[in-house]
Amino acid sequence: MLEEVLRQLFIKSFKTLYGQEPPVQQVNFQKTRPEFEGDMTIVVFPFGKLAGRNPEQLANEMGAEMIKESDMIAKFNVVKGFLNLLISDKFWMDFFKENHENREFGRKPVSGKNVVIEYSSPNTNKPLHLGHIRNNLLGWSVSEIMKANGKKVVRVNLVNDRGIHICKSMLAWLKWGDGCTPESTGKKGDHLIGDFYVLFDKKFKEEVKSLLPANYDTLDEKAKEEAKAKAEAESTLMQEAREMLVKWEANDPEVRHLWETMNQWVYDGFDVTYKRMGVSFEKIYYESQTYLLGKALVQEGLEKGVLYRRDDNSVWCDLRDEGLDEKLLLRRDGTSVYMTQDLGTAQLRVKEYDPEKLIYVVGNEQIYHFDVLKRVLVRLGREWGNDIEHLSYGMVELPNGKMKSREGTVVDADDLMDEMVATAKAVSDELGKAKDLSPEEADKLYHTIGLGALKYFILKVDPKKTMLFNPEESIDFNGNTGPFVQYTHARICSVLRKAEEQGIKLESEVKVNDLQPKEKEIIVMMYGWPMVLNQAAENRSPAMIANFIFDLAKEFNQFYQECSILKEPDADRRMFRLQVCDMVAALLRNASELLGIGMPNRM
RNA sequence: GGCCUGGUAGCUCAGCUGGAUAGAGCAACAGCCUUCUAAGCUGUGGGUCUUGGGUUCGAAUCCCAACCGGGUCACCA
Length: 603
What we know:
Blueprint: H1 2-18, E1 29-31, E2 40-43, H2 48-51, H3 55-69, E3 73-79, E4 82-87, H4 89-99, E5 114-118, H5 130-148, E6 152-159, H6 164-176, H7 182-185, H8 189-211, H9 221-234, H10 236-249, H11 253-277, E7 283-286, H12 287-290, H13 293-304, E8 308-309, E9 315-318, E10 326-330, H14 338-353, E11 357-363, H15 367-379, E12 388-393, E13 396-397, H16 413-431, H17 439-459, E14 467-468, H18 471-474, H19 482-501, H20 517-527, H21 529-538, H22 542-562, H23 571-593
Parallel strand pairs: 5-6, 5-11, 6-7, 11-12, 13-14
Antiparallel strand pairs: 1-2, 2-4, 3-4, 8-9, 9-10
This protein binds one RNA strand through helix 15, helix 16, strand 14, helix 19 and helix 22.
């Protein structure tokens, strides 16, 4: 807005002075660096030739003309080719007067078609871990951000509830579980199932080892591989698991019953984790219910001749002319693969929601998969394949490298949240922050702080980038962290409470017309919020929101340090500062909500 | 090997649609609580933006090459 007005003013002035029209996209603004006086800076280097002036001359002439034309500009100065414009206090005050009570400031009304966002997408054979946490937080947050920016968002989850991996857990439970349940063991269902999955793997490895030939260690690499493959094929455990999968597909009542029971344990466990994490879905799809849908699409593709069948009966899509490879869509036994299921699920979503976009929050190791998915859909005549967007995020690494479930270096989601909350409690107690709260309120606060720290730590990093999770640093509550922002909010609330206790009621009318430096910096920053929100939505980047709330909190803390609020003698200015406090607090709440981070009133 | 992606302070990260002397936080050091919550504020030190070319008034940012790291190229998901 400000930029647009200034741009027009610049162009108009330029025409007046030089009779030429400068290219619009060249007229760019940036914030004036703090060491110079001004708010906005135009770089005039690109227009020197057009005007027939050297940059400094040009900037001076333009500044004089612009200040003459508009009372929005209070002052200007020129450094080399940089024209620094000081915006009048009136402009900022008008902005503040208009928006300081707007609790929805920056948000746009929701309209248009649906945007379907899939995230989480767990397997039902193990509990959620750190990687899922990044996925879930991103999916949730991007949804909130897009909603705030005017999109109609539908959150969906696709649970991978079928396949050989679930059979492994079931088989292990049957063999060694002794009929145990989440109730009998006191274990969360997802963890219980995960334990049996690990147990299967352990027993399977033992069996394979026992089947290896005696001279295995003396073999060369290739022979070793062959021997191992042979042993794995001979494994009765694996055979039993496969048989179970076949029975499952054949709707064997016993297997199905066990499968339903055990999956339910997992879902109950997931529900607890999701709830604690603060994420939810409008719709949950299950692969067991959708995996057949893709097959119909494949059949259609065969009839249209865009897919083909090999001699061994497997079905493929040839994408070599697009620079990709051939892609298998049905195995030779006619069963479907991951891609087949995704084709069907996508079709179902289009039917159910008629979306303008299908966004998939999935790790970047699947970039190729989604590239193929889009192209295959388009081949099948589904132009909306192009509306698929893979929101791919980077891996989470630990200080000693990647997480590997087999090496036991996985950071479990439930454990991590426990630790964060426990640390929040320890720090709060140490600082004596929660002593006036009831036990219930205190627990709620620890949860808000612990989860706030975790969410901020994960979301402040650009989603595209690989990030490092250092357990020690992530539980730091100082500096660029969630609790820092929360603390700032709590402080503001404290001031507002004190004001109320003193009988000062927040007024709507703003009676101040000039700005002191720290007051102005805060208002200028808040002015930029709608642009930040818009950018964050377009870039699908919660990190931009996180950066903003940190900057705003930091700015407020400086203001708080330098300017007294309640002790300000001038009543109008005191009221104004309270109004600033109120707007900052509201904006911190408004923005942090998009990250799923709560703002406590005291801490 | 082909394709994709990253390399910024000791560490974690911003900045990347080209602009002024490259920024935060952590860690280190030095200050600030009889005064609105010190989970805070202020200051100091710390950089050949991996390297080498190119484009131009100007490059961490764009292009090319090299080096190093990660991902992917399954009848796994």
